[in-house]
Amino acid sequence: MTTQELSDAHLLAAVRGGDITAYGALYTRHAGAARRLAYTLVHCPADADDLVAETFAKVLAVLRAGRGPHVAFRAYLHTTLRHVRYDRVRRDRRIEFTDDMSRYEQVLSRYEQVVPFHDTTIARLERLHAARAFAKLPERWRTVLWHTAIEGEPHAQVAPLLGLTPGGVAALAFRARERLRQIYEREAAGAG
């Protein structure tokens, strides 16, 4: 028998046994009814789709844990969908939108006094990536970046060293910085 020919009870037992394709058959069989119910509970189609997706995910987790229905899957699904909707409404009621921040000024002032955390490990790793990226640049680009970005020398002062005009130094420095950024991103992503 194919999964479409099996009863809900057989499919539920298969899901509990670890067969996800059986849950796919249950989804195909009952998703339309769940969407219709969701559309009656919310006004936005996107919210309805989110509600259906969250409901099916919750029911799957319950079934994998060995709980949930053995028969009457649709009734259980609809009940779960309504509960998910009610939970969202309760959660949304607790959210307060206001322009008046005076009630929160004391809390905010405590956070303003917090010193930002500086992670030395991350800083060391970023320096390592930067050094590796810099070492991969051609010598001429390393030179222009060293003199303009690190030493802060003006383009006119670096031009004779590289045999370029000040505008040529600016263009070379721009290309070198862009290439350094690309290599750094690759290094940081682990593809270096």
Automatic annotation (TrEMBL):
It comes from the Bacteria. InterPro entries: RNA_pol_sigma-70-like, RNA_pol_sigma-70_dom, RNA_pol_sigma70_r2, RNA_pol_sigma70_r4_t2, RNA_pol_sigma_r2, RNA_pol_sigma_r3/r4-like, WH-like_DNA-bd_sf. Keywords: DNA-binding, Sigma factor, Transcription, Transcription regulation. Residues 26-94 form the RNA polymerase sigma-70 region domain. Residues 132-180 form the RNA polymerase sigma factor 70 region 4 type domain. Coiled coil: none annotated. The keyword Ion transport does not apply. PANTHER family: RNA POLYMERASE ECF-TYPE SIGMA FACTO (PTHR43133), RNA POLYMERASE SIGMA FACTOR HI_1459-RELATED (PTHR43133:SF8). Belongs to the sigma-70 factor family. ECF subfamily. This is Sigma-70 family RNA polymerase sigma factor. It comes from Phytohabitans aurantiacus.
